Structures
1.
Amino acid sequence: MNPESLAQMSNVAIYSSMFTLALAMIAFAASFAVGQRRPVAVAAQQSTVSAGGTAVLTKQAPGGVEEPGRRASNIAISLTWLAFILLLAGVVLRGIWAGRAPWGNMYEFSITAALGILGVYLFLNIRMDLRWLGLFVVIPVLLTLGMAVTVLYTEAAQLVPALKSYWLVIHVLAAIICAGAFTVAAATAGLSLLRDRAERHAEPGTTPTGLLSSRVPDAERLRTLTNRILAFAFPLWTFAVVAGAIWAENAWGRYWGWDPKETWAFITWVVYAAYLHARSTAGWRRNRASWIALAGWVVFLVNYFGVNFLASSLHSYAGVSS
Amino acid sequence: MSTLPPISNTGMLRWAWRQLTSMKTALVLLFLLALASVPGSLLPQRGIDPIKVRSYLTENPTWGPILDRLGFFEVYSSPWFSAVYLLLFLSLIGCVVPRVGVHFRAMRSAPPPAPRMLQRFSGTRTVEVTASTAEILATAEGALRRGRWRVVTGPVDGPQWLSAEKGYLRETGNLIFHLSLLVVLVSVALGGLFGWKGNVIVREGSGFSNTLTQYDAWGGGRFVNPQGLPPFSFTLDKFTADFERGSAQRGAPRAFEAEVSYRTEPQAPVQHALIEVNEPLEINGAKVFLVGHGYAPVIKVTDRTGAVVFDDAVAFLPQDGNFTSTGVVKIPDSSPQLGIQGLFLPTAALDAVLGPHSTFPAPDDPALFMSAWKGDLGLDAGTPQSVYRLVTDKMTRIGLEQLKPGQSWKLPDGSGTVSFEGYQRWASFQIAADPGKEMALFAVAAAILGLIMSLFIRRRRVWVKVVDRDGVTVVQLAGIMRTSTFEDEDIGVLAEDLDLVQDALESAGQTAAPAPLIESAPEAEAPKEES
């Protein structure tokens, strides 16, 4: 197959994925708008759950009243899967076109990071019901892809010598999975803050009302979920940074040189380390920990985007500053 | 709320230590560390780019020196940055070291006896049994021990209960993680004290031997003897570079290769190696990295009598991605002294806006633009001069010319002839030794392993108790989480643990069939105690 048609197929797959995601977003939003308060029984079950610490994952009991908006969210999940598959195809085709791992510039990082976010979300959704989270995952993915195809787009090209290493695959793959996990965790942390606020403002013994807070699990469950995602992501991020250091030692002659990208990777690590500590510190494990999780994500974004554009860094092979 | 410090000195010290090693202090120090790292990525740093620091200082005459005095151009070795991480490590030591002893004792001691009332724990099961107490406990103990639980039974005179614990590796992992970070810090310090690195430019066909004088720049730790560097040497036989010729990212580098012959010591046999960007050469504990390259035009100068006063390849420094390169030739031995400022263009182009410049990094159409000077080079003034800059204060310009390889230029005032004979390539190498890096790698590997253990292993206890209830012998099974990360999974994990025991009893035929499974109401046993 000639390279040009591969390139076109990759682009078509990515645009189709974006279109599908936009539909998924509408469906998620519809399920949010249509879905009134959760049935009281569910809410009651959940509050015992959080009080007793005895939850099984909140799969809905079969045969119960169908939640309004459930069908819309089911459609949205199917569309998200379709978008994931299309995006995967787009990334793989891009890799075949370039003849290497498709992680050579910011455009390629971004489409792969979008794939990572969707992948982490869909993987978690298999293990527990996370349809309520979909809207908050699909929006950042669409933004990432939109930015990729407009601002960051570059033709596929060979790699500069510094990137020619199998560490590219290892280091970047780990970092991209972390990008997905950090983003999903930021969504759950942000929702936990909103929900916590609503719970404090709700009258005692009732579940909160309101567009956002009535449609997501209770704050404690959101915090636990955030913690689980970050407990998975933190060792992986540690590994990504270490893999980068090993690579740097091989390419540049030092494993750590406080290059801006390295510095911000370190700051990201420290902030998420603070998150894990906060989770086991009295007085910090609730909203403060959630704020730290959000801060970690912001720092990660600075590392991911900001450093490439603002600072002169050894990592500035973004291919956008032509 | 922290209490006010007591008045006595030891009390004060103890109070300070307690504050330092508290979790909240650790949190604050972590935030401070994150915050303190930021300015180093925004301001130029001396250790990375000293030239940028200098230009920043000239551009900001007011703030520059103030920032400089506060260490903002050497953030990562500044006193305040060091203070933050040293305090953090002190806090870590204070927190972790005492826990090592506690954990060591916990791992060697038996689990505590089963509590009197098992009903109050969530998920407690009661199973009617037919076998004797001793048989029941033996079956349960066997199953638990096979599952690598630590088991104790009691009381000593005729056991009635069994208490088992598992997941000690969680705390082991936690301690390994934190102690490994200490080892990383030590490794970094070792590298700083015993490591060294230098940079050198080597032309094709030229050699380098690892002594201080041969380096263009060199820096070493406090305990490095600069006279005792490993005595290896190498020659750059050939350097090749490839660049992108397609339209996308045209001119971007694609491959660099340096073919070298080296000796590990002066009498050792010659060996050959290929150094590439991700493929350094390791000699005697030092690594030779290929970090850059450029062109060295071969220039020959004869004076007015026709005598050759200069004939050599001169390394020019690339100024842009297309290798527009600048360099100078100083000829102190002619009379008057001659100096040449040169601009080497691998693919020459000339336009009104950019002047002479290169349009591609490969030597497709090389040209040398020169401006020749005569007068006093100023070499005798005693102030050291850069080999890449001509000091023209006491010189006058003779003329300007551009040459293709093989062409000559008769200087207009008759003071000599300059020939552009051709060009060579040069490669720049960073040569570095860091004796701490293997230890650092080992330590971070241990840290990641410890981290995974501490995040995913669950420490929990189960109890098996044989009791007589209204004339029927029943077994009570219960358990608790000692530490917990994910509360909503804990109940499932405990249920599996209890299943382990119950299944063993059932398959041993010791339960009354069908086993009635009574679960108590979910009552909260706050399952956490962790820092």
2.
Amino acid sequence: MSRQGRLAGAVEAMLRDRRPRSLSADADEAAQLRTAALLRSAHPGADLPSTEFVDRLGQQLRRQAALDEAEARAPSGSGRRAFLRGVGIAAAAVAAGVGVDRAVTTLRSGPDLGQSATNVPDAGDWAAVASLAAVRATPALRFRAGSVEGVLVARADGGVDALSAVCTHLGCLLKVDAPGRRLACPCHAATFALDGTPASREYLRPLPRLQSRVNGDQVEVYIA
Amino acid sequence: MRGVAPHPRESHPHVQPESDQAPLLRVVPAPDSAAWEAVYREHVVPVYRYVFARTGNRPDAEDVTAQVFLRALPRLRLAASTGEIRGYLLTTARSVLAEHWGRHYGAAADPLDDERLTRDDRDPPAPEAGAERAHTVLGRLPERYRRVLELRFLSGMSLRETAAEMGLTLGNVKVLQFRALRKAAELDAAEPAS
């Protein structure tokens, strides 16, 4: 499709109240998208939130506030500020014991929401977590190794990727949705593609990668 | 969905003491929840409208608004004036919008040019400012450009309905709309601070 066609498609999506497809806009095209959004907001009633959305977000905030409060009161908590930076990992670490925070250090990296990163642990061991055949037999395979919750995904080139299976929203453990070829969070319906990028709530941080390798017929993950 | 906070084990099944060493995470209702919920109710509509004028569609406006409040939540629970809270929410909204636009429309896509950003920081805009600005831009367009954008964006007519209304072919309307939007974007960018 031409550039002009992609831009027109994005504008038509706005007019139908749908999310436009991502595109790489130059400065002029971005200005036109900006103006299209502005004009759309002048459609009577278009820029008012639905009651359902307002209620749903209110409930989500209430749950988050309750978790904040719990951490602030926890006797051995790492302190309120640290908790607010890494609410998901704090909850997961409490659930799993120790070590999760070292295994997925990228979760703590604060407001940088746009990037994934490969975590490089400084001390630990390689642990065999699954056979290569088992990984290749399914779109994604969950594993638990010590305190690390992860998922293995066979790559097209024969290698294997390992990702954290802790949702970057509030730290729930992800489940494999094999027919959908994605990872789904049971808590708030967030989903992630098998490369770790958020698929349903795109403002979430991508799933951090874990170090992994194929050793003979076993897949090993580095456990800090 | 229920009107009360669910029991933590229902919404967060992982929060369970699986290890003897792990401290129990006690999830209790926030004592000041009534206060921040009132703040939320007061600001959610203006913030949504601000975000909608910079996203132009419901799914993106909902996602961005949710992210704004989740990030701002710790601050909502502190005592502050309505104006201070509004300013903080809009500052947060601008940063979430910048990330959103960068991710969806590429590096060149900044939802707020520098001039407007500076002005907003001094004096956060009222949510009505979006519609006002839209009408100002429309009012400066040549008649046919203004007409096609009004029919499509304000009246919500389809391409086909717009073609019938203006006595044009579908192809004519597409070309006219493209040129009109390009011109409107030029005027929007050039408009002096109001």
3.
Amino acid sequence: MTNTLHRFGDAASFRDDYIVFAIPSRGRNDQGSVPKLKKFLEMALPFHPVNLGDARHGGALRPCRKLTPLAHWRRDVRPDFRAVIEGVDSPTTVAAVFDNRAAAEEFVKAVKAADLGLSVNISTSVEGAEQCCWAAGIPRHSVGYSLGFEGKTEKLPESGVLMLSTMCGHGMISHALARKMIDWVKEGRRTPEQAVTYLTRFCSCGVFNPSRAKRILEEIRRKAPAAV
Amino acid sequence: MRISPDRCVACGNCTYVCPMGAIYIDPVLKRATIDRDECVECYACYNGLSQEHLNPTLVRALRKVFSWLRLRFDPEPDVCPTAAFEPEDLTWPRVVRRAFSDPRVPHESTGVEGRGTEEVKTNDVTGRVQLGEVGFTIEFGRPGVGVRFHEIDRMTRALAKAGVAFEKRNPVTTLMSDVATGAIREDILNEKVMSAIVEIKTTVERIEEIIRLVWEIEKQIDTVVSIGVGARCNAEGEDEIVAPILERLGYRLERAKTNIGLGRVTNAEATKAAEPAGAIM
């Protein structure tokens, strides 16, 4: 799962994007990991994450299999963190998404103190992760650098679309849907908050960052179409 | 995946949510239809769209009236109003598409969801990449372009020829008919997937050579490639070796995944296992 590594944007655009995730290694520390994974997610709550995720069941805002027609006017858009925590039922990757470094730093300190024995990673700018480690007094163990996108890049869409769609590294948020939401926000058919909820539901492991997405949509709305 | 023509009302919502752009409204049938050759069985349509269970006949009639009156109902864009998507039982080789495209399906070879890889995310536990070594993840088809295995096959053959070691616990490696040559089994070469990751490990001295090789093969294949480079930090938490090489090659290191080293082996059998950590083949 490299689903958070290759987010599109420069380091400054990750100032509100900090994903801290825990992952057991199959055959090495996966036995008895479920309560630890739940504890990891539970510990994130006091630091006000903008999303929580379980790679097997999804994030804090999920699609509904039985909507009523009233949903078109009155839809529940509140993230359900409790459902994510209670839904963890097997060894998997779990993630907490924060929109500020201070919260991520405090969470990393708490995770260190809890000593769960699981691998914990921070996915953000190189510098942002370094600062989280310094704050917690932890030397970095390993780093996985993203070198960005190469090859037939002419097949990729414009940067605004890419910044939104790559927040689901598994590709569940299509470029077409991201572009449609940008257009709808520009046309005033939906607010950035509303557009973000549609996008969030497609991310099947809960690492989409609704706070960063809202900022990106607001910035694109203010720019001329040619700029995005 | 298929869309029931009896239930579909051609609202068009699903045409936007398909990451591969494989869904369209058939002008003759007047129903949403899936281009099976382009569909990667990612289930974004089935899993991502919320579902209503409205009567299709009623919805079609209402849509006709609205259309005739030139009125536009502005429905939620992430809803299938009639629950028209029907998952199919997939058989070999098509089942490979789903394994590499639907992130909720764990790869049988590794037990890991998503693209089935652990990389340096668990390096504190596996010890896969040590000082002086680098772990490459070469991902094809991401973001949102897709890839067929014959394109990956070009890269894996070139890498094998260069004498690199493929990660054993990796889904693509398990689909090779000959790991020594990097050949991927023939019966899946035309299968299209959302993305797939080839993992290799080498020494820091070979970083430039490997990257130049990847650049060369990238020109010959019809998709995008995302490279990740994993490095072990020193005791102070610094990487003073790999990052400077990558920067010298022209890369701006904007984003990374940082393993903070809190993991340890806790499985009873693993603590006395004979298999060396990070085995390669």
4.
Amino acid sequence: MAETLLTAQGLEVHFPIKKGVLSRTVGHVFAVDGVDFHLKQGETLGIVGESGCGKTTAGMAVMGLTPVTGGTISFQGRDISSFGRRDWQRYRRTIQLIFQDPYSSLNPRMTVNQILADPMDVHGVFTGAERKKRIAYLLEAVGLSPEQGRRYPHEFSGGQRQRIGIARALALGPSIIIGDEPVSALDVSIQAQIINLLLALKEEFDLSLIIISHDLAVIEYLCDRIMVMYLGKIIEQAPYRPLYHAPKHPYTRALLAAAPVADPGREKQRIILTGDVPSPINPPSGCRFHTRCPHRMAICDTEEPRFQPAGEQHLVACHLYPEHPLE
Amino acid sequence: MNMPDSILEEKTGVVEGQPPWRRFASDFCESRLAVAGLTIFVLIALSAIFAPWITPQDPYDLMQIDILDGRLPPGSVSGEMTYLLGTDDQGRDMLSGIFYGLRTSLSVGAASTLIALFLGGSVGLIAAYFGGRVDTIIMRVADLQLSFPAILIALILVSILGQGVDKIIIALVGVQWAYYARTIRGTALVERRREYIEAATCLALSHRRIVFRHLLPNCTPPLIVVGTVQVAHAIALEATLSFLGIGIPITEPSLGLLIKNGFDYMLSGDYWISFYPGIALLITIVSINLVGDQLRDVLNPRLQR
């Protein structure tokens, strides 16, 4: 069995809401509220959910970009909250982020070469002639030519910029890459290129990926294992095949039914959810989905569902299981 | 690696490589008025820098001036000297006086602006980057300072510090820093929310490196605009202080002091002693403002073509 690189246990990120001159805390946004997951060597983990469900915040917490208010994240068995300065430096060399918006994620005043050399400078790796070779190698790996390194970001198209962003993430030779909506800002034709690039790079650089997206098609194509998030909690996780072919949770079913399928002849059963996503400031009691669930039972209002096994490596947090499984 | 589709990668949207400064220069030259302003300003700056070599007379060398030549009207000839712009009450050539005066005015203006730019820019950046309490304290001090009229602050500072070129520069810095702090904070607050700053954090870059290599270069355009306009303000403010007699010491007269010298003779018809330094001051400030206005148009991202 492959080594587990990253583990999150009971991860909580609550943002205080401050009001008034004295900045009194009047409440919290429960962005991520008790999330467990792990990432194995060589695996691609997908986190899917609608906007505001906390999937980006979870990614930020793993990167140490947002303070964690509860639970632990550990990397190779060590809790990242116990990291010192040097550990953080090393940690950030092994885990990198690809950003959503290729237009704002590159410093417009630096050439591509400078953008790629900057992290190497700080970490003191690839010095001298080796650096030039490394930059050329990275640019070629993401499908750009080394000559383009002298240009500024505004001289590139969106897809090319995203390639530069990926090259920057690879610059220090990381082993984990988190893609926060890595293709959502791109045209569909270019999305496919970037996804193929990510798959190719995963092989070449021996990476483990966490892909955060609201786009089920992207997740399906990239990921080995998928977690579905709703209002700061994971409600279902499974390898991609069972998740797509036999989804268990009513929310996952609705989500999959809403995704467009490129087959006009196919009969589709639509599941239309009523109401909006409740506010993460004041989440519903019991099961968070009960306000919109078509299969709501009495127990759902009061008791929070635990994860139930629903197949091989398939976990679902829903009171319907195991007694009243959906067909 | 096998990636044939990258060859087909979108060709559109790729702007052919033109160095940013060249595009900037051609945008700037679109306005003839601005080019004229820049030309005049360069000429003024050159004449100020080379004043000792190009003026017909050193107005502060007592060997060269004759009190008997006092208050000669423009165009008078006395001995070998032709006083194109006349002489003041001490018999000094006004043209030479103006060139020397420009020297003092411009250097005080430029020095105070540079120092204020550096100080104000630094605290503004720090305020925006760290936010929270640091931001509140710095910006409230700036607000407090901006709520007083500039001339009042300058008067208070000069009266505390005393006279002298260095004291005037300190006073002008004291008046101006808040403008820069405010300007750069506004821009930096927008820039620091952008993802490249987050990317820099992810790469474990130090605060100093993020602030100076990533944040600052993206905040400079508005700073350049404000800086240009503030040079003109600084020169005008210094002239005002000198006119009031509390600025630059009499041994290093600036334009303001020249105007003040002639003021006593205005009503007796010897207009030129005040008038020509006044014109020189006017042209300087107008030319700087013309350059500043065009810079603002060129560097404004919302007007970018």
